[in-house]
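It is worth pausing here to work through a concrete case rather than discussing structure prediction in the abstract. The textbook approach is simple: state the sequence, then state the predicted structure, then interpret. We follow exactly that order.
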Amino acid sequence: MMGWMRTFVFGEHFLVFCFFTISNLIRCALNRIVGVLGPLARSARDLSLFCKVMLNAQPWLLEAPLLEMPWKDDVANGLNLPPKLSFGFVWDDGVVQPHPPLTQALMRLKGALIAAGHEVIDWIPKNHQQGWNLIVSHF
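Step two, the predicted structure:
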């Protein structure tokens, strides 16, 4: 989750939020590229509301591949968390590079997480260009 100029974004894993309610036509078009519902919001509270509503709908009952992940108010409010969390950062996937201001903001975030005692992992994706070439060959 990141806020910049009052815009908040949440990019979740593709096995968390339900895509079942979106039209089957769109769903058929996305059968090779898995889409995610990644909302933009004006506040972290709005993102929290989105996640709570989506997960309280129990989307894993509609789509078998989805992970069962019930909403936890205590975790959303920062309670009952382990003292040390792990965060992964993808700086460049070899296909698309983030804009410099985004990279700078992520570097500041990384520094703050390390200073707070959390584990930060620089994740280096493998073969994204090969994956992209495979995807575009289908269209």
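Step three, interpretation. The CA atoms of residues 8 and 45 lie 10 Å apart. Helices lie at 24-29, 44-56, 73-76, 100-115, 128-136.
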